[in-house]
Amino acid sequence: MANIQFPQDFVWGTATASYQIEGAYQEDGRGLSIWDTFSHTPGKVFNDDNGDVACDSYHRYEEDVALLKKLGVKAYRFSIAWPRIFPQGTGDVNEKGLEYYRKVVDALLAAGIEPCATLYHWDLPQALQDKGGWDNRETIDAFVNYAEVMFKAFDGKIKQWITFNETWCVSFLSNYIGAHAPGNRDLQLAINVAHHCMVAHGEAVRKFRELGISGEIGTTHNLYWFEPYTTSPQDIEAARRNRAFNNEWFMDPTFKGSYPQFMVDWFKTKGATVPILPGDMETIAQKIDFIGVNYYSGGFGRYKEGEGLFDCEEVQIGFDKTYMDWNVYADGLYKVLSWVHEEYGDTPIYITENGACYEDELTADNRVHDVQRTDYYRKHFIQCHRLIGSGVPLKGYFAWSLLDNFEWAEGYRKRFGIVYTNYETLERHPKISYYFIQDVIGKNGFDV
Ligand code: GCO
What we know:
Blueprint: E1 4-5, E2 11-15, H1 18-21, H2 34-39, H3 57-71, E3 75-79, H4 82-85, H5 95-110, E4 114-120, H6 126-129, H7 138-154, E5 160-165, H8 167-175, H9 187-211, E6 216-228, H10 233-246, H11 248-256, H12 261-269, H13 280-284, E7 290-303, E8 312-315, H14 330-344, E9 349-353, H15 371-389, E10 394-400, E11 419-421, E12 428-430, H16 432-443, E13 445-446
Parallel strand pairs: 2-3, 2-10, 3-4, 4-5, 5-6, 6-7, 7-9, 9-10
Antiparallel strand pairs: 1-13, 7-8, 11-12
The structure holds D-gluconic acid.
The site of D-gluconic acid (GCO) has 11 residues, from loops.
């Protein structure tokens, strides 16, 4: 027996997202999404890359499922492209879009893999964006309608549902920082978007219960572990704001039905308020069956007047960095999930994404010796094991990502896969990290 041993029912999986892997952007009636628009706008994405072809998983999903099966995972997290189901966001269902996901889900089930579906991983139908997107509350109704169609179509087959992936990215990264589609730079707009996405999440959960759909439903937030550089009150406050921007701003409404007041006050000084309508907070805080956490990194910060939105500057204390320039902070995973458990209670937790980007080189015999990525995984698996030992209800882990794919604004240059994608031939080649994870899953543990 390995000396790091996971519970028998621990769920090992990998994750992907529709726009990042599917390609086939005009096939079988798919409508355009905000990511088609964004990536086709020169200068928005590195090298002007786009997801027109991506990994071509729309045609090669059987190969992907075979890779998953060989890897030995119990579950696969993927996302559904809303514009395949409703090309205009609302209206008639596009049967061919549903058909594609039926094939994927059936292939997974036949391989003994549980499908875990994310309803919104950023590809909003462009037609809805044209009417204001997530700033417009009508998008909430459109989302719930789309969710209902999916729940009914896959009831009994998909047993784990995630409403939203990373509402922080959907809101602040895309509408305040402007790095992702639709590329706006407006704080008030970003706050509106965050709020409306969370209301849409709550309404979808309500619908799920009303319909009596089997399985579990939750949402995924991307949490970051940010610590004050010193114990000076100013550093503590600054780091707290910075952390709350990613964490509490989303976790508090989800679990407590309120926004953190110190952040509401802070945003007010920037001229922004939350557009809460009666009943919204209760809707957002619908009980969920699990919380998904995407964790990649963390860091340290200190007070600096005028720095960023929160008077906080990051301090570089010498972490190893990935090719995204993100700190490798495995201990941060332990800290952040311990904090989630302490602050928000016993709701089961899934790590719905964790992984690393490094510069990979394909050897002449199609191998990738991604030693650093393997090491990243090993370090984070150790923290998962510590968490479970400490009583944190961590139920599963999804590696980001099954395969190299369209890394949003970074295009194809940033690789996160445990399988290498050759973008010329679309061939897939498992990396060393894939074999490491295969071994971990096989033993349900490893030796340290
Ligand atoms: C994310 C996204 C992924 C990214 C990954 C690496 O949730 O941010 O789910 O799509 O590719 O995080 O940046």
